Each structure stands twice: as C-alpha cells, then as structure tokens.
Amino acid sequence: MLDLASLTELLDQPRKIVITTHHKPDGDAMGSSLGLYNYLIQQGHHAKVITPTDYPDFLNWMPGNGEVIIYTENTELSATLIADAEIIFCTDFNSLSRINEMGVLVGKSAAYKVMIDHHLEPEDFDDYRHWDINACAAAQLVYTFIVDQLKHKELINKDVATCLYTGIMTDSASFRLPNTTSTVHRIVAELIDAGANNARIHDLVYNSASENRLRFLGHCLANCLEILPEYNTAIISVNKTDIARFNVNTGDTEGIVNYALSIATVRLAAFIVQRNDKVKLSLRSKGEFPANEICKKYFNGGGHRNAAGGQSDEPLEATINKFKSILPEYKTLLIQ
Questions:
Q1: What is the pLDDT of residues 126-181, one digit of tens each?
Q2: How many helices (H) does the chain have, and how many strands (E)?
Q3: What CA–CA distance (Å, rounded) separates 157 from 221?
Q4: Is 128 in contact with 164 (CB distance < 8 Å)?
Q5: What distance lies between CA 257 and its chain's CA centroid?
Q6: What is the pLDDT of residues 207-238, one digit of tens each?
Q7: Cα 162 to the chain's mean position, in Å?
C-alpha cells in the first residue's frame, strides 16, 4: 500500500497515468474522471481517460471530453495504455467487475492503483484509497483529494471546477439528497468561484433531450408505470420492443426511475429494462429504505442506500415477478 507521502512523491514527476471509471458512466463518473484529468495535465502528466463503454451525449461537452478513449471502440490502444501506465486512478467504482473486460487488464497492470470512491464494501485491488461512503459524489472526493490531500487548491481552474460541479450536481440529484451537506455546498461555492457556470451546466445536462427521449419518457409514464399501493412501491418496466421502437440510446433512460419515486406515497421505485441478454434494474428509495440491500441480495448489484442497481439473467417478466415477491419481506419498512 502507498501512503500519502509516497503518492505525493510519485506525482511530483510527470507520469504515465490512466483514469478510468465504471461502465455506462454517468455524470459523476465522467465529472470526477475529467476533473482529475484536467488537474493532472496542468502538472505535465501524460494522462488519459479510458471508459469501459460509451456514455450519454449530454455529457460530451465537458472539458477534456475530446481526449476520452472508449475501450470498446479502441481496445488495442486502451490495453497498451493500461499496460504502460505508472498510475491508474479508479474513480466512482470500487470493484474491478464494474469496468467489465478492462478489469482484468487493470488487475494485471503493474501500475499503482488509486481508488477515489464513495460506494460500500470496496475490493482490495488498490494501493491508495481516498474513500468515504458519506460523500455525495466521487467528484466531491476528487476535490478533497486535490485540495486537502495534495494541497493544490490553486490548480482548481475553470475546467476542473466545471467537471467536478457536474459530478456533484448529478449524483446529488441537483443537491436534493440527504448527503448534500453544508460541506458540499461550500465546495460547490468554491467551484463556482473557480469558474464553474452553474446555470449553463444545469442547462447542458438537463435540457438537452432528444425528441425520441421525450416521447420514450411519455410512453414509460403513460403505459409502463405500475403502482403497488400495498407496498408504497412503483415499477416502470420496459421491454426490448420499446427500446427499439423509440430508438433508445445510452443515457435516454437516465433519471426515469425518479419520476416514479416522485409520487407522494411511493417509498421505493424500480426501473426494470430488458437489454440484450440481461435485464437491468435501477432502484431509488426515500428515507431509510435500503435499496442497495435488495440489489446486492437478489440482483447481483449494489450501490447506495437510496440509489442502487442490479441485473438479472431471467426474462423481463420473471425479473419483475421476482422483484414483487421480495416486497413482503420489506413491507414494514415500506408502509411505515
């Protein structure tokens, strides 16, 4: 394991660095990765961001996005960069399975691995860990890593601030979740002072939907929403036919589960979608209800208490029925 002094010494000289994040990256994954990238290049490091898969178009405006390498589109270059790296930063994930095929390459690499993350139960693949499950976003931890640990607050420039603001904004549901503490607001204020244009960032992320995405959302709410009042639970389920009909792209399903959770009586919401040979689940909950427990225990997943995800090898209907069959176990928590 590296201590902070050893890591700081390593970073005192230009290094070959890879930054990666989880598959199907969201705003926090890309915000934390690109925020770190824009910090490192100021110091002359040879840094590259490699994502395991593609990511939503509404995130492709962030500073440094043009330099991102998508592993599934450039496997040979990605493998070479990972093999040659001296340091690999792992942002917004703590299990190598979360980066798909890249996990084997990162695991075999002789590079020092630095984890910057806020999820439960991290694997022991890293050499240095900046980890806090109480942080609202990995981007928050990138900020404290740069400012509090490396003492480089002066390098939080406009590009760094813009990316980190995006990560914090998206993972805190626009600063609405309980872990959006006064500390988070103070960090956000510092990022705005450093040049992050909060109104423009919000507009680019939340007001850039395609017509297809909006029509798909309408279809989900009008035709795919099921309410289970006896469990204060809502389910939105989508099959492959719907995905093809509305030409659903990466990012088009982002946030749909939150519409179900916005119903006053609902404490648990599920978005269940059929994708190729897998069925994906996104769960959101209110209060103390442990959405992550359901995903970990029954759907080979995990996450945070109020926001978690998982998957199933069973068909869509069987997965929905399995989810429903679990609810009686949690009825006391759901109806309190």
A1: 999 999 999 999 999 999 999 999 999 999 999 999 999 999 999 999 998 889 99
A2: 14, 12
A3: 41
A4: no
A5: 15
A6: 988 899 999 999 999 999 999 999 999 999 99
A7: 17
CA proximity to 87, closest of 21, 4, 15, 6: 15
Span 4-206 CATH architecture: Alpha-Beta Complex (3.90)
Instruction: Find the length of the chain.
Output: 336
Each domain of the chain, given as residue ranges in start order, spans: 4-206, 211-335
* CATH number for region 211-335: 3.10.310.30
Indicate whether 115 pLDDT > 80. yes
Smallest Cα–Cα separation from 310: which of 268, 278, 280? 280
Question: Comparing C-alpha atoms, which of 177, 204, 166, 143 is closest to residue 27?
Answer: 166
End-to-end CA distance of the chain: 45
- Name the one residue in this structure whose structure tokens are 């390593």: 10
Strand order in the sheet with 87-91: 69-70, 46-51, 16-21, 87-91, 112-117, 128-131
Residue 4, token pair as written in the block: 């902070």
Burial class (CB in 10 A: 0-12, 13-18, 19+), 13: exposed
pLDDT digits (tens, 9 = 90+) for 63-107: 999 999 999 999 999 999 999 999 999 999 999 999 999 999 999
